[in-house]
Design goal:
The structure is a homodimer of 600-residue chains. Chain A is α+β, with helices and mostly antiparallel strands. Helix content of chain A is 34%, strand content 20%. In chain A, helix 14 packs across helix 15 and helix 16 runs antiparallel to helix 18. The longest helix of chain A is centred in the middle third of the chain and has 28 residues. The radius of gyration of chain A is 25 Å and the shape is globular. Chain A starts with a helix and ends with a helix. At the A-B interface, strand 21, helix 17 and helix 18 of A face strand 21, helix 17 and helix 18 of B.
Chain lengths: 600, 600
């Protein structure tokens, strides 16, 4: 099937005179998750992971993806003839190096310029320059060669009340204008959906797991344009209170389709935009006489720093979320081996518990419910039918989260379902110690995730172990579950904004893990709120407040492998969990919660 | 006296039509330490610190220096009429902001373009551009107005045999040419003295504490020019074996003075140079048709990675250095309170012990020997006459090092000379734990000092303490004691190259400290050699080998404040110290060494 799809694509390439066609995993807004309309790479490769780029030539095809997906991609690409390129492994070329190799003198490279970032396109253009080739950036061949492509949906938009958002849109826009002034810009173009939703206190449902809506924003010193309305039949998507709110806050609503045609009309202005986030098409659409000031979107840092209203709400969301996860744990421990359950049904059960929480909207990402060896697949996705039965032995890892009006959550717990091997217990204890070590770090203001990541990782490194992912990422407020610019990750990644100075109010996950192929995977994840601590002659000290509240399975912990400080930290955490969750439990369940959070 | 010197300078300014004259602390080569010829700022201000910039206008003068020197500068500037500008304090302008303030429309700014960095000059020029003023970069008014200025000395140069350097000059030059090719450059201009000395396996004595010689280098694909010979009477500085070595390695020796006149003759070439290190005059001397490729000097990384021969030599140097420091400790502990000693005489005694070591050349920097409260002054300099007597109580901090043919050393030990207060012992133990924690870090390749710094600092931060300096710096091989690009420092400093990936063979110091004004200062410093450890599925693990070998004063350690792991680390280190130093001790001294390195 994939082979047929690819040969259809090659026909379109031939017709358009394109020798090599590139399909990234993206939408028009550089979103991490994309709606079905944008799943072009999946359609032409069969690979279902959330990250990857397909490069198709007349002779072959290659899929580039990262360590999270090596096992999954290898499986899914079987029989397609597509070569798997394991990015980051020794001797595996990057996409750019690969293009250097496959593109012959004078050949052309094509892509849909709306889904390729401006900065990437620039690099590709340089390669073509050297090869005297041609760049075709205005051909959506993937779309043309995809019969029955899903429609681009514009779902209804809703207003996030200021008792949830904590700040009005006009105040936020004023802050953006301040930053524009500082940068000497007259126009700011914003195309990232979570930034637009945050700025206007609006939410939608156009991207799976992400309550955003398709839109482009243009801010000048006296105007704010929102290109978001569907041309035909989009009236009902914009209820009266939303329209009124936009008007009150000086925002003009325009058709989504009018954005690209609008761009060439800007003349002689300095435009603030993030060249690492906007599309190639956007840059190509701008007139020669504009000047681009390339900076991270000012909204990125603003929305990462949660305001006091948001913080208070987030705490409430985590109590609800903790109740659901603790109830799930109780159910799991009580019923495993007694009733039939598999990875999919267990995830559904958890989702049902979350849905009981007030103001719950939807999962904040696809739950990873991975039993036994499946836990070693970092971004495992269980499918009905093929997924594993859960039995009363080994480990079950569940990474899940929810969107509430009070914020978004992201939590991972790994559960011991019976006797564990000594190695499993040692690994479980290692992960607990690493998570605790980072979250109990006291640090001076100005420190970044890059400085602090080793607090979790040192526990692994001293034993010659590691995990091939960041220790943590920022989390949005009823927005993307992965949010810039804060995170924990020791490596410098050019162009990646994940190591900003940790500001009071930022929310970051702390999620070390261990993955033993064919055996087990263990990850634990808490969300941390960055807080100001004491200020003295040395400066402003900072610490992390626990947001996530759910027991860490003591059945996995080997106390003899813990130091006194580890035990104290775990007991302190469990005491908090008990105190905050107990009011929502009673009877047998309450007794169980006490036992699950007992001091060790 | 200073006032007279300044009014003389102002006469020269008037004659040259210069309204504002700037004198930094630098030589023609961006050296950290400068020879007496270059101490122009000191001559015109009276301030003797190692860092500071003097700005003189017709009406006044201001000296800019940093936190290390506020107390000293305030004292030394008394009565001179020069205003002290405490850089980094609130509301104190930077030099650039100050120039913005004092320069009136159309006024001119002057300096000796050979001692001002190209990048700084560019900033000054922008200010003048806005003010429609004139930049005069070719006037050494400081030199003109300084009667009796010391001569610019060219001391004899000597060859560092390949049994010490481990690699021939032609091989090093070939590696530089490889980098030039990679960067697309036809010419590389090198003006930093340690890079030139390293590249050519030559050493000299033109800068205090730094065995380098005044020189400029120009490398093309087929030529290597060394502008270093003194025009008159420089014959004896270049012995026959040095001249022969240069010839063998294809290096042409030219007069030092011919460098600047040579530059305008370069046409149509791409020149690799480090714009953050070369002088304003250099950039101004280049023709319009050259293209500058601004990169760190390739030699910086090459010389930081010590080759196997250098590593083996460095180990030997540290045994000799450790013997001297241990003997000093023995002498100090035995004699304090019994014979008269002060900070200066104690430092001299230590220097005498170092001089007994084979192939010892000179101190690698001015010894910091600071008793009691003086230890809290991070860059304390004891002066004969005014320095403190050492008594049998409190703490003595000694930060010292030596240049040997086998490499350069840098070691700090703090000694308990009698009963300590509980706070002093707690602080001493804290510093020991922090130093041990960093040096025992096992880490994955690609980690930088920025990632690892917290391993030392976390011990401080958890108690709400900190030290306002980096945890460590690179160390040259019979070169500068402070060497780029490796170091331990958690903050990102724009333009500072101190957080390179830690490569096998790099030598970095590990020197946390605590400074309590008016009471005491404690610093401990070991040099660490970066080594490859196990390689497994997670990658290449790295660890640090101890280079420095000298007892850590157990009289300062409060064992009850240590964890088991701290004790084990300290005992392991002391066992190494004993094993490697014992062969050089006998009798009572040997027994003492055993006691000083006993397990706790």
């Amino acid at each position: 099937m994939i082979k047929e799809r690819l040969s259809k694509l090659r026909e379109h390439m031939k017709a358009a005179g394109i020798d090599c066609y590139l399909i990234p995993t993206s939408d028009y807004h550089d979103s991490e998750y994309v709606s079905s309309f944008f799943m072009v790479r999946k359609y032409f490769s069969g690979f279902t992971g959330s990250a990857g780029t397909l490069v198709v030539t007349m002779e072959g095809a290659a899929l580039f993806t990262d360590g999270r997906y090596f096992i999954q991609a290898a499986k899914e690409l079987e029989g397609t003839g597509i070569k798997l390129m394991k990015v980051g492994e020794a001797k595996v070329p990057t996409i750019k190096e690969y293009l250097e190799q496959v593109l012959k003198e004078g050949q052309s490279l094509g892509f849909d310029g709306r889904v390729v970032k401006a900065n990437d396109a620039k690099d590709y253009e340089e390669i073509l320059g050297r090869k005297k080739g041609r760049l075709v950036w205005d051909k959506d061949l993937g779309g043309e060669a995809w019969p029955g492509r899903p429609a681009l949906l514009h779902q209804p938009v809703f207003l996030l009340d200021e008792r949830y958002s904590g700040e009005g849109a006009s105040s936020k826009i004023a802050r953006v204008r301040e930053k524009m002034k500082e940068e000497g810009a007259q126009i700011h173009i914003l195309t990232t959906l979570d930034d637009i939703a945050w700025l206007l206190n609006l939410r939608g449902n156009d991207v799976q797991n992400s309550p955003v809506f398709l839109a482009y924003g243009v801010i000048t010193m006296d105007k704010a344009l929102l290109f978001a309305q569907e041309e035909k039949g989009g009236e009902e998507a914009w209820p009266g209170n939303v329209r009124a709110y936009l008007e009150e806050n000086g925002v003009t609503l325009l058709p989504y389709e009018d954005f690209y045609p609008y761009l060439p009309g800007i003349h002689g202005k300095k435009i603030l935009l993030s060249a690492g986030r906007v599309s190639c098409m956007l840059k190509k659409s701008l007139a020669q006489d504009v000047e681009i000031i390339d900076r991270p979107n000012p909204t990125a840092l603003m929305k990462a720093v949660k305001n006091p209203v948001e913080r208070e709400n987030i705490r409430k969301a985590h109590v609800k979320d903790g109740v659901a996860v603790a109830r799930f744990m109780y159910w799991l421990k009580k019923n495993v081996g007694k009733i039939s359950m598999d990875e999919v049904s267990a995830a559904q059960y958890l989702e049902g518990l979350r849905r009981e929480g007030e103001n719950y909207i939807e999962p904040s990402f696809d739950t990873i419910c991975a039993y036994g060896p499946n836990g070693a697949i970092i971004h495992y996705s269980a499918e009905p039918g093929s997924c594993a039965q859960i039995r009363p032995e080994g480990l079950l890892m569940v990474d899940s989260g929810g969107h509430y009006l009070e914020g978004s959550t992201d939590i991972t717990r790994t559960f011991a379902l019976g006797e564990l091997t000594p190695q499993m217990k040692a690994h479980f204890t290692l992960v607990v110690r690493a998570m605790l070590n980072l979250k109990c770090t006291k640090f001076l203001y100005e420190a970044r995730g890059m400085n602090l990541d080793i607090r979790a990782r040192e526990i692994f490194w001293e034993q010659g172990l590691d995990y091939k992912h960041g220790t943590g990422h920022g989390v949005g407020y009823l927005l993307n579950v992965h949010e810039d610019p804060n995170g924990f990750w020791w490596k410098k990644t050019p162009g990646r904004e994940d190591s900003a100075i940790l500001e009071e109010g930022m929310v970051t996950t702390d999620e070390p893990g261990i993955y033993i192929e064919g055996s087990h995977g263990i990850r634990l994840e808490n969300e941390l709120l960055c807080r100001k601590g004491e200020e003295n002659q040395y400066g402003q000290f900072m610490y992390f407040e626990d947001l996530t509240l759910a027991p860490i399975d003591l059945d996995g912990v080997e106390v003899s492998l813990m130091q006194e400080i580890d035990r104290k930290r775990l007991n302190d955490y469990h005491q908090q969990v008990y105190e905050k969750l107990a009011p929502y439990f009673e009877g047998e369940e309450l007794a169980w919660l006490g036992e699950a959070t007992r001091p060790i």
